[in-house]
Amino acid sequence: MAKMTVFALADPAAVIRLMWERCPDTLPPAEARARELRRGVEIVRSRLSTLSLDETTGPRWGAMTAEDIVAWQDFLLASGAIRRRLAPETYFNASLVERLPRMGPADELIFVEGHSTDATFDTIAEQIAAHPEWKIDHLRPSFLLVSAAR
Fold first, then answer.
1. What are the pLDDT digits (tens) for 48-79?
2. What does the CA dihedral 79, 81, 87, 89 come to, rounded to 10 degrees?
3. Helical segments of the chain, H only
4. 3-class DSSP state for residue 137?
5. How far is 60 from 102, CA to CA, in rounded Å?
6. What angle do the packed helices 2-10 and 33-48 form, to 10 degrees?
């Protein structure tokens, strides 16, 4: 996944073209292709803007704060991808990790979120922020990332 992220950082337009190649049903009509490519590149760049290849922005590569979630939702609103933004405190729930028993000194939680339409991704981000005592990572696999990595 890291190789795909580096690839996307270097050439976001290639990411969109690869998606269209691998998922032909996502290919827009010829007359809309240039506009949709620009829009796709803007979305990829915005999403990748929270990622860093160094440790200057925090210990977790790609971790998002509540403020990051709000900014991302604002972008999605402006792009028309969502109709309304919810305040993070509306759907963040910090009780999940609190209920898990420790099993050993090197415990690690890995959440895999499959692009659900509920608040799963946001809840995972909140859990990471609320529990620095745990090593928590989250994965958000996509067909595009899996296909491009092959």
1. 776 655 444 444 444 556 777 788 888 888 88
2. -140
3. 2-10, 12-22, 33-48, 66-79, 88-91, 95-98, 120-130, 143-149
4. strand
5. 21
6. 120
